[in-house]
Amino acid sequence: MNERIRVRFAPSPSGHLHVGGARTALYNWLFARHHGGVFLLRIEDTDVDRSTEESVEAIVESLKWLGLDWDEAPYRQAERLSIYRGYAEQLLKAGRAYRCVCTPEELEERRRAALAAGRSPHYDGRCRDRRVEPGRPWSLRLRVRDSGVTVVDDLIHGEVRFDNAELDDFILMRSDGMPTYNFAVVVDDGLLQITHVIRGDDHLSNTPKQTQVYHALDLAVPRFAHVPMILGPDRTRLSKRHGATSVLAYRDLGYLPQAMVNYLVRLGWSHGDQEIFSREELIRYFDIGQVGHAPAIFDQAKLDWLNAHYLREADPKWLADLLLPFYEQAGIPPGEIEAKAGAWSGSGKGGTFGEAVIRTFRERAKTLRELAQNSRFLFRVGIDYDPQAVEKHLRPQALTHLREVHGRLQGTSPFDAATLERLYRDFASERKLKLGDVAQPTRVAVTGGSVSPPLFLVMELAGREICLERLAAVLERGAA
Ligand code: GLU
To answer: Disulfide-capable partner of 244 in 249, 256, 283, 422 (CB 3.0 to 4.6 Å)?
Structure first.
């Protein structure tokens, strides 16, 4: 391709960025980056009743979180109204568009009558040749070419043919002076020299209308790629009923942006049977022509699998910073976290407390939220004891061992995994026990359950005081 590729993501800011929109943005971004082209962000905020600043911020935040950067200052349609009005004027003068003074009530009445008579409910062209003068409210309608066919050569759907007789003289400018979507989008895509329009296939049916606007304005028609919808497991359009749908909700549930990007790209696109892609690989391999035309089904289990993968792979330092809000969510006061982190760095152990937590717990968690939940017992919080684990491991004999171990733990130093392991092994061999006979009861006492990452690492992270307190509490309670 010789021309410089220019694509855009054009969300309407009437809510959060949903996974479907995020995937559209991602495909545009990858297409631009693959071809060394330009990726633009255009906020389609001409619908003043539905657009909010809060949504604009959420969209921007979502794109930043996913790492989808845009190349020119974001465009906002609400700041470009004079441009649309100028083009509207031009079409009016050239006779390609005309003023219509039919009121909504009249239109509705005629629409009903047409339907009742078995005719098409489309606009009947009443004002087409009426030469309406301004003075009362008017909207601007395109004089469409209503014969022949419009062929959309779509990069995903192939050639799609639309009968022009199906189109009516649709509105370009409303009576309040605002452009309609089909008009503003064409003016902008034309002026911004967009070469490829990649968007959801719910817009495929708008494309023949937009094609007519391009022709009327004498603008080059871009190439189109209409991306299929994302469906829930029940094959209905993905919605809140299926769980979280907004990108920021996934972030707040503890998903990582790498996992989200990797997941979204594979919803409809594939490269052989590769499942895990680095960002560089995605840029290298992405090909819009390889996007399938069947709808994709959202698969939570696969997203979880990818997230667990990136949790294991990502830089522990970076993950540790991301973990903090999840601890707060899990009810751990920030002061408590700071105190632990401070004590850790003061002990000369190397690395940070957060990194050590990540390394110790990440094998078993699917999300950061789960990781925070699984490791909250490291802090001074009330913990829930698993009754089965208590029943099985905190028998009278076990408590006798724990009492002795409690005594030894008080004096041991340093309180680190290697020293603790030695202490437990020595104790077990002196008493002719298996390590598990004393390690499992300790695990239940300290963590509340019978499964956890390696016990001595966990004890080191919890620290001497918490370990001793929990053992003492169990001893005081007595045997199961
Ligand atoms: N604002 C439209 C939407 O969010 C943009 C469609 C397009 O990309 O043309 O659906």
So the answer is: 249
